[in-house]
Amino acid sequence: MARSLVSVVVPTYNRAYCLARSLDSILSQTHSDLEVILVDDGSTDDTRELVRSRYGRDSRVCYYYQDNCGVAGARNRGFELVQGEFVALLDSDDTWASWKLQLQLACLNHCPEIGMVWTDMEAIGPDGKIINQNYLRSMYGAYRWFTSGELFSRSYPLTRVAPELGSVIGNGCLSTGDIFSQMVMGNLVHTSTVLLRRERLAKVRGFNEDLKFSGEDYDFHLRTCKEGPIGFIDLATIHYQTGMPDRLTRPAYKLHAATNCLQTILPALENDRSRIRLSPEMIRLRLAEVHNWIGEVSLEMGLAASARRHLLASLRQDLLQLRVLRLIALSVLPFGLGMSARRLFRSFKSRFRGSPSPVADPAASLVEASPSGT
Question: What is the distance of C-alpha 164 from the center of its chain?
Fold first, then answer.
């Protein structure tokens, strides 16, 4: 396969403490024909000095500073600057296996009809130890709706696609198909694992900068899948960082994630319904869970009117939800009293079942959100 330039877009914000690990994992790729577009989204730490001292003599690393505008804006700035035939994305606290790009390029070469390929990932804790070797299906709850056969139409053994990587690919497979319909049920794609053809990116155009704090990834990947067939490698090619203190976990960010999810799927259902091969029941369940998600987070924040509105919307989609009825009842109580009653109910249920109650995150497309520009 001919050498092809890969442009790697890396947004970062105050990540000098871990950025070098991410950049080194790019620069040590077995596919060496690459450029790194590092977009510093207004960092106030030592990011600029780190890049100057460590990578200033490496022509592959291109550093750009801008005022803080969020991760979507930082990635879009990077897209404007790429020169490669292929474009990859990496968050500045994640790292790649050294053969990631080589494998993905082999997959895109083997299946010229696919415009994007993504992979599984290993989750690592703050101490750097692996806590989950196949984290994708744990992080993205939408996988629960489908078997592999329902997601993809074709499958190829990686030993046939990239025989030169036989020592690392094991029994892995490349699966391909049109999954736009399935993506309506929730995000299936993790951004730091993605490699896109530049021509597919040109059709998608970029991230929606109106989706603040969380959820812009789902919108981007849904639109990427809308534009044609894609591929998935059932093999972990990245280390995904979890548990770091600069993650955004406050209820306000959860509310952004939930409302952005709804803003992502409603246009698809309204504008592309004829293309979506989902049963009316599945669509109702999807809308019910997202409205439930928004309602529950709104209730946690004391936004009773918003909570009731979305909980009632959830109930209209799926009447068989005793949990939603309880939440509606709590929403009419004063905030402090309602939250106390909810905690009491959770405690009672936990003791009765002998295990903790699950945390509600119906769309389950994000476990933890990254800060702006990372």
Answer: 30
- Cβ atoms 90, 103 nearer than 8 A: no
Please report, for the chain, how many H helices and E strands are present, in that order.
16, 11
Domain ranges in the chain? 251-353
- What is the pTM assigned to this prediction? 0.89
Which structure tokens are listed for 85? 């035939």
Our CA angle for 11, 13, 15, nearest 5°, is 100
Assess contact for 175 and 110: CB atoms under 8 A: no
- At residue 133, what is the residue type? Q
Instruction: Give CA separation, 158 vs 107, 134, 165, 233, in Å.
Output: 8, 17, 9, 8
- What tens-digit pLDDT sequence spans the chain (374 residues)? 457 999 999 999 999 999 999 999 999 999 999 999 999 999 999 999 999 999 999 999 999 999 999 999 999 999 999 999 999 999 999 999 999 999 999 999 999 999 999 999 999 999 989 999 999 999 999 999 998 889 999 999 999 999 999 999 999 999 999 999 999 999 999 999 999 999 999 999 999 999 988 899 999 999 999 999 999 999 999 999 998 776 655 667 899 999 999 999 999 999 999 999 999 999 999 999 999 999 999 998 889 999 999 999 999 999 888 888 888 888 877 655 545 545 544 554 455 455 433 333 444 444 444 544 45
The beta strands (E) that lie in 289-329 are given as none
